[in-house]
Amino acid sequence: MTEAPHPSNDTGSGGDSPDWADRMEQAVLDAALDRAPDLGWNARLVRAACEANGLSLGDQELLMPNGARDLAVLLWRRRDDQAMAALQAVDPATLKIRERIAQAVSARLEAGMADAAAEKRAAGFLALPINADLVAGLTWATADRLWRWAGDSATDWNHYSKRAILSGILVPAMTMRLFDGRAAAEDFVARRIENVMAFEKWKAGKDFDAPLRKMTETLSRMRYGAKAG
C-alpha cells in the first residue's frame, strides 16, 4: 500500500518525491471521510475518493491494492497518531498505572470521534467477519503503542498478556464510544481496568516458570541420573 509509485501523469513539483504515496494516501483518506457518511465504507467509496484526487484506476490499484481494507488501515493509524499526539501533553510518570491506561484509552477513543459519521461506517466495515484478522492486528498495534506510552518495558510473557488484555478492552470501548456515548464507554473502560488491576495483583509473585523448570529438571534427571539438576 505504501510502496506505490507516483502516477505517470503527475507533473507537479512534488511528483517525484519519495513520499508521494504517503501524501496521496492521506489526501484520499480525507476525501473518503467526507463521502463515507453517504457512500458507506466500500469499493465505491475508494473509487470516489481516488477520483477526487485525480487518480486513475491503475493508480488506485497501485496505491490501495486492498481497496476499502487499506483505507480502513489508514484511518485507524491516523487515529492512533492523533491519540499519541494528544498524550504528549500528559506526563505518565505523574499517574498511577491504572490512571495511565485510562488516560491512554480515553485519548484513543476521543481521536475516533473526529469524524464520527465516517468512523461509524468504517466500524461497520471492520465488523465484518472477513476483517477479523485485520482488526486483531490493528488493535494489537494500538495496545502496544498505548502500553509503551504508559511506560511498560516488559519483555517476558507479561508483554503479551498486557497487550492481549488491553486489546480486549479497546474494540468494545471504541464501539460504545461511537454508538452509546462517552459516559457508557468510560464506565466500561473503568470496570475493565479494575479487572486488569485485580489480575495484575493476583499474578504478582507467581512463579509462572515453575512448570517449565520442573519439567526441565525431571528430563535432566532421566538423562543424567538422580544427581543431575
Which helices and strands appear, and what pairs or packs with what?
Blueprint (H helix, E strand, L loop, with lengths): L19 H20 L3 H10 L4 H7 L4 H20 L9 H15 L4 H11 L5 H18 L7 H23 L2 H22 L6 H15 L5
Describe this structure in words.
With 229 residues, the chain is mostly helical. Helices cover 70% and strands 0% of the residues. It is globular and about 65 Å long. Residues 2-16 have low confidence and may be disordered.
Biggest sheet overview: none
Overall number of strands: 0
Report helical residue fraction. over 70%
Gap between N and C termini: 53 Å
Q: Which regions are unreliable across 5 or more consecutive residues at pLDDT < 50? A: 2-16
Give the mean pLDDT: 85
What is the CA-atom radius of gyration, in angstroms? 23 Å
Number of helices: 10
Structural class comes to mainly alpha
Beta percentage is under 5%
Shape: globular
Q: Helix and strand string, N-terminal first?
A: HHHHHHHHHH
